[in-house]
Amino acid sequence: MDPTRIILAGGWVSLMLVYLLGDVLRLFSGDAVIGRIGDKAASSWMWLVAALVMLVPIVMITVSLMVPATPLKWITVIVSAALVVFNLSGLPYKGLYDNVLIVLGFGFNVLVIWQALAWHPEAEQ
């Protein structure tokens, strides 16, 4: 297996763990109010959107290992850039830790994009 695929999958795992760490710290710090997203009572569609956003890095782990190289390169760039835009729309967050973790997440997004763009896979069989 091409080592770049493993690096990309590892980047997605790292990003997912940063997101999860932020969620856990938000709960323990008291910055999250149960049943609310931001300042609004959360409806079922809001929870669905939250679940889908959190599923993106999880799905990308499998995509990184299974999709042919050429589409994978561009799927990776587009999805990672979309997550950056999505997370930028929420800044700044209440807690300093949250803002630091989001910036760290941007770092993982940049590394994943850089790795994908720098990848020149040999013909896959």
Write the layout of secondary structure elements.
Elements lengths: L2 H27 L6 E2 L2 E2 L2 H23 L2 H20 L7 H23 L7
Antiparallel strand pairs: 1-2
Helix pairs in contact: 1-2, 1-4, 2-3, 3-4
Q: Tell me about the biggest sheet?
A: 2 strands, antiparallel
Order of helices and strands: HEEHHH
Secondary structural class: mainly alpha
How much of the sequence lies in strands comes to: under 5%
The Cα radius of gyration reads: 16 Å
How many helical elements? 4
Throw out a few tags for this protein.
elongated, mainly alpha, 4 helices
Would you write up a description of this structure?
The chain has 125 residues and is mainly alpha-helical. It is 74% helix and 3% strand. The protein has helices at residues 3-29, 44-66, 69-88, 96-118, and strands at residues 36-37, 40-41. The protein has a two-stranded antiparallel ribbon with strand order 1-2. β1 and β2 (40-41) form a beta hairpin. The protein is elongated and about 50 Å long. The protein starts with a helix and ends in a 7-residue tail after the last helix. The model has no long low-confidence stretch (mean pLDDT 92).
